[in-house]
Amino acid sequence: MDYEEKRLHALTSLNLLDTPPSESFDRITRMAAQIFQLPIAAVSLTDIDRQWFKSKVGVDHNAIPRTKAPCAQVADNCELVVIEDFERDERYCDSLLGVSGIRFYAGAPLTTREGYSLGALCVLGTEPRKITQAESTALQDLASMVMSQIELQHAFGRIDPVSGLPNRIQFTEDLADLGKDAPDEERVIVALDLAQPHEMERLSAVMGPAACEQIIQNAARSVQTILGRVTKVYHVSSAQFVFLVPSEFDAVSYRSSLLNLLESEIVGPELKYAVTPICAMTAFSPLSTSPGDCLRSVASAVQETRATEKSVGYFSDSHDLDFRRKFRLLNDFAAALRDTSQLRIVLQPRVDLVSGEIASAEVLLRWRHPELGEISPGEFIPVVENSALAWPMTCWVLQQACAKLGKWQSQGIEIKLSVNFAASNLKEDVLGQVLSATADGQVPCSSLEIELTETSLMHNSVEVLAKLDQLVEHGIGLAIDDFGTGYSSLSYLQRLPVNVVKIDRSFIQKLGDGAREQKLVHSMIKLSHDMGHRVVAEGIEVPEAADLLRAMGCNEGQGYHFARPLELAAFNGFIDKRRTDLNLRAIA
Predict the structure, then answer these.
(1) 408, part of any domain
(2) Are residues 571 and 523 part of one domain?
(3) What's the pLDDT at 150?
(4) What is the pTM of this model?
(5) Which among 132, 193, 220, 305 is least surrounded, fewest beta carbons within 10 Å?
């Protein structure tokens, strides 16, 4: 490349063009105007066909044509240029500046360490004048200060070393500047999320870290090329870029543009199928939305878009409120684990369908928030299970269950309790925690059962199966919860050391639909019995379903037909009443 090509490459690589104003540059520009006692000063960058002002004093417009601009001469020659009187200068007398009333110009080059001039720090006046040696030195010193600021911004915490794009810190600063310049103008930010974390981890494991860096670099080049130089792209996290859409944003038409972006070869054809890029959008007001909240909202938009399996998603205010609530619940749950007044367990009985006796009970968690009141387990359990609090939550429930079992057994009440374990719990020291909890409660392991969802068992390793075998060896029961909703197979059932199969409520509630649905449940019961498992039907709400299941040979039933989840005191009363009813029935 010749000098001009290399100079332009150096300029564009610094990502300065068309960026918002910055106080760090404006401070130097004001100083230049004050030193020279002149009305106009600017940090002028020489682009292909224009002089673009990164900073300016006394100028209304953001750029002028490069043709016959003195700053272009500074960029071409890397030298200080002084025009004492435009009217007497043959080269510039009929230039745009000359015919606009400018008479004096002095510009010092903004030169990179490699020797390429990006443009000039210039001062201008409407009267002819000379420049002293001291002023010349001062202007060149100020130009050096501008370059130091440019290099500082680029090299120290402003540019991502892999993509070469402005990073999150630069984004927050630019967004803060935008809030000053156009505070009332609603904008839309777009996140391009290249891949899910597990995709990048898998790619790194198979092809090495260099492959991940190659994806980022390819994407950075492609996105800049597709969006054009007018749109500034930021690299804000490992595999995520963000950019602001044009002010004349139209959701429908711009969604089409983003779909076209995703369909292009963002990461290169050789890695096209290794990652799943998506785009997510959210609107914000620069005045009322901090840079941090803006990034949080767009991160939420990415999560929502991936959750809905869309290619392009839009994050609304209602989504934001939902996300904020989930975030609050997660933070507050940590405190709830330490506060004995907030969390409690309730019990839903499992009834023997033949004898009518209470065979066991499932332990369920309830949360009474001090400000929000009762929080539905359907709301907070999924949030906690997908966080680092999943295991502490399970341990808390396990301790409470064993403590209750210990009290019952000291009163001569024999019953088994079943505790739900999340998939992520299987990565922990399950056996150690169960043995510790049963020891604290002074109860035998045989009085405890652990429920695991079918899907969580399907996607776990040989190591996890070994843990389950250890639990069974110590007399702890294992149950498959929500059976039938995962990926059941005979080989899968055969290798799991489970004692109980709990047929999901979705099958039980369709028993009244017809013979086809009944045959399906009957087959599930027979298959489980043939494999040596005891069968529990969940979600029994009407006596007709209980009768059908009893006739099919189902061992136990659970559901509102027998009892809703009961507080501990109510459960004790339920046990007493059940025993009394059974005794009266036996006498009769």
Answers:
(1) yes
(2) yes
(3) 85
(4) 0.58
(5) 132
Answer yes or no: are the C-beta atoms of 102 and 111 closer than 8 Å: no
Do 175 and 96 lie in one domain? The reply is no
Specify which residues 539 forms β-bridges with: none
* Span 100-115, pLDDT tens digits: 999 999 999 999 888 9
Size (the chain), residues: 588
Output the domain CATH number for residue 51: 3.30.450.40
From CA 538, how far away is CA 502, in angstroms rounded? Answer: 7
Alpha helices in 94-132 (DSSP H): 96-99
* pLDDT score of 249: 61
Range of the domain at 131: 3-155
Q: Which residues, other chains included, contact 278 with Cβ-Cβ below 8 Å and sequence gap of 6+?
A: 192, 193, 262, 302, 305, 306, 310, 311, 312, 313
Task: Check residue 538 and give its pLDDT.
Answer: 95
% of residues, the chain, pLDDT over 90 = 49
Looking at the fold, whether 441 and 470 belong to one and the same domain comes out as: yes
70 with 180, same domain: the answer is no
Q: What is the mean pLDDT of the chain?
A: 87
CATH number of 481's domain: 3.20.20.450
| Cα 201 to chain centroid, rounded | 16
Does residue 551 share a domain with residue 419? yes
CB 553 within 8 A of CB 331: no
The CA distances from residue 230 to 113, 264, 352, 372, 483, in Å, are 26, 19, 71, 47, 55
> Minimal CA–CA distance to 578: which of 359, 418, 345?
359
Segment 302-311, tens digit of pLDDT: 888 888 888 8
